[in-house]
Design goal:
The protein is an alpha/beta fold. Bound molecules: 6-O-phosphono-beta-D-glucopyranose.
């Protein structure tokens, strides 16, 4: 037998480092702009604590909040403590907290005030001295996109963006990254004038989810699926991200953005890229990104758009046993808003593997339940040697990647119903994370923040990917903009009837997860 210890051929993906060992970030500070916002409170600060609790942050670590409030370091630390106590995943341990709290600082400033950045520079250099953070700084912009340019300009003008003496600088940018292709390019230019591309980390938190990374393991670590992962066997693919929540309280962000920009442009097109891309030569960042870009560049909206897309706004109704108001009555929305809260699109992936296989992407607020899944729905067997009545209950085979909740993978296939006949009905075979592994999955933001501190960019879409995604979506958004107001669908339903018609035209139907 040639090659490695395992007796098989040498593994070309193996590099010198044993990748099973957790990697711990080196000394550094993380500065969060927009630290009083919802995202920072619910996700970022708890994720930082959970990383500390898992022993993945260095002893020399600084956490700096930058915001308008007139807070002292102690006020901020008390605030962080209260959100961490509430939202942590790994359990609150006072000794971990105390260590983290020693490196917590707050800088009062507005995004356009040069003095704020001067104070920030002093604070960071103080941390370098007191906490041995070694001059390495990451700036996390959890702020509205219209503030990116001014913050980048000031980071540059104050010298904070320059990496001196081999210390690193990184900037983390939250979505939405632009609202169409042109604005995304403009933003990329603005950020690119201050930071080099390898210093820019654009967050798409779906890539931080275990179940999304598992798509790569499912596809490329197994022999079983690859032979059928193509247009010879797959009839179509459905990618669904359904939410039961509405957008009360988020009008400022959501109005004018809508479901397609909020979710399809980033999360769903990235899921599509993971499902549809070719096998990368290795899991090195540039190889993974190259494959994602290739497949996104080959993806186009299916035509005609009036038949291949659907959108809607939720009306009032019931969410479970709770009465809920319709979108138009949510506080803060402009009357007559044409913003969609549900979007469904059809795209074609123009590659040999996928030619002729429609990919249906849908997302919506106030739908029947919260679920994200990817379903590969297979073609029917070309011939069924059964009485027709025996297979009336047999659907199409499907492989369903359950991204959340209830994470796992389901294989649906036909099975004989016990009895003297040969009746065949659909059954499910399930893999369930909860019962297969004892380790709990880290939160997406834990993984991604750690990757930023490690300088590991694989799970961050780069400039080209972001632009390729907008190129796919732009024609649809333009078409919708010319069409005026979307249809209404009842809260708690599965979207507007136009979405059912969209699939019905092709003889298919949406899964009801
Ligand atoms: C965000 C969207 O990116 O993802 C939100 O802006 C959405 O509108 C959220 O609610 C959903 O994330 P998750 O991880 O709960 O599916």
């Amino acid at each position: 037998m040639a090659g490695s210890d395992s007796g098989g051929p040498a593994n070309p993906l193996r590099s010198e480092r044993d990748r099973r060992l957790p990697r711990i970030a080196g000394p550094c500070s993380l500065v969060i702009f927009g630290v009083t916002g919802d995202l920072a409170r619910r996700k970022l600060l708890p994720a930082v604590y959970d990383l500390a609790n898992r022993g993945l942050l260095p002893p020399g670590f600084g956490l700096v909040g930058f915001a308008r409030r007139d807070w002292s370091d102690e006020d901020f630390a008390a605030e962080v403590r209260s959100v961490v106590e509430k939202h942590n995943r790994t359990g609150f341990r006072p000794e971990v907290w105390d260590r983290l709290a020693e490196g917590i600082r707050f800088v009062t400033g507005t995004f356009d005030d040069p003095e704020g950045y001067t104070r920030l520079a002093e604070t960071l250099s103080g941390l370098d001295t007191d906490r041995a953070t070694a001059g390495n700084h990451a700036f996390y912009l959890a702020i509205p996109p219209n503030a990116f340019p001014v913050v980048c300009e000031h980071l540059s003008a104050s010298g904070l963006a320059q990496d001196t003496n081999g210390h690193w600088r990184r900037v983390v940018i939250e979505k939405p990254f632009g609202h169409d292709l042109d604005s995304a390019k403009e933003l990329n230019d603005i950020v690119g004038a201050v930071f080099s591309e390898d210093e820019v980390f654009r967050i798409d938190h779906y890539l931080g989810k275990e179940t999304v990374q598992n798509i790569l393991a499912l596809r490329f670590a197994n022999q079983l699926f690859e032979p059928i992962w193509n247009s010879n066997y797959v009839d179509h693919v459905q990618i669904t991200m359904a939410e039961d929540i509405g957008i009360g309280g988020r009008a400022g962000y959501y109005d004018g953005i809508g479901a397609a920009r909020d979710v399809i442009q980033n999360h769903l097109l990235q899921l599509l890229a993971f499902v549809a891309m070719e096998e990368p030569i290795s899991f090195e960042p540039e190889q993974l990104r190259a494959e994602r870009i290739k497949v996104l560049s080959a993806t186009r909206p299916a035509q005609p758009l009036d038949e291949t897309t659907a959108r809607g706004q939720y009306g009032g109704g019931w969410q479970g046993s709770e009465p809920v108001v319709g979108f138009a009555d949510e506080p803060g929305f402009s009357p007559g808003s044409t913003t969609e809260t549900y979007a469904a699109i059809t795209v074609d992936v123009g590659t040999r593997r996928w030619g002729g296989v429609p990919f249906y992407l849908r997302t919506g607020k106030r739908l029947g339940r919260r679920v994200t899944e990817i379903a590969l729905v297979f073609k029917r067997a070309p011939h069924l040697p059964f009485d027709q009545t025996m297979t009336e209950e047999l659907g199409q085979n499907a492989l369903v990647i359950r991204v959340q909740p209830d994470e796992g993978v389901t294989l649906r296939f036909g099975s004989k119903v016990p009895g003297s006949g040969m009746e065949v009905r659909d059954v499910n075979m399930d893999f369930d994370y909860g019962s297969a592994f004892t380790e709990a999955s880290p939160e997406a933001y834990e993984r991604l923040i750690l990757d930023v501190l490690l300088g590991e960019p694989s799970l961050f879409p780069d400039r080209e990917e972001v632009e390729a995604s907008w190129r796919i979506l732009d024609p649809i958004l333009e078409y919708w903009a010319a069409e005026g107001k979307p249809d209404t669908y009842p809260a708690g339903s599965w979207g507007p009837t136009s979405a059912d018609e969209m699939l019905g035209r092709t003889g298919r139907e949406w899964r009801r997860p």
